[in-house]
Amino acid sequence: MRNFLPGMERRLGRLAQLLSWISAGALIAMMALVNANVFLRPFGKPIWGCYEIVGFLGTVVLSFALVHTTMTRGHMAVEIVLSRLPKRFRVVMGIINRALGIIVLILVSWQSARYGTKIWQSGEISPTLKIPFYPFLYGIALAFAIAAFVAMVDLIKSLMEEA
pLDDT over 70 for what percent of the chain? Predict the structure, then answer.
């Protein structure tokens, strides 16, 4: 198991980096689109469906950036109180916190996939550009599933270090 983790972490790191680049590209596209729309609107040439596209790109930005944030432990942590507690207690609280985080990530992934399937079956599309919603819901589900897997690997690594 100890030999398996470093290789898995490297592969997950590359995947997190790829998703982070996709997220960054979507963010740049959002900014360009909004700026172009603001610039063109006074000339009577607003970008049709800008609001929808920005919303769809927002799901990509947020969900795909989550994997890198989980990988680097970039989320916020309250350490003011925990830093004053005994080390053993901090370790146990860290394990419990990671386990609960994994459960939340799995639940969000599962429910996003379920909702994506429901939307797909209903044929629901965006009102202006007629873009289907379900691929973005599946993207959210995939990103949260990968983040859950990253968190599981991190939890296993922590447990092995403490053993």
Answer: 95
Residue 125's SS3 state is: strand
Task: Please state the pTM of the whole predicted model.
Answer: 0.89
Residue 45: CB atoms within 10 A of its CB come to: 11
Residue 125: strand pairing partners: 132
pLDDT in tens, 92-135: 888 898 999 999 999 999 999 999 999 999 999 999 999 999 99
Q: Which domain covers residue 69, as residue numbers?
A: 4-162
Instruction: Give the distance, in angstroms, between the CA of residue 37 and the centroid of all CA atoms in the same chain.
Output: 27
The number of folded domains in the chain is: 1
The rounded distance, in Å, linking the Cα atoms of 16 and 66 is 9
d(CA 40, CA 152): 47
12 vs 64: CA distance, rounded Å: 13
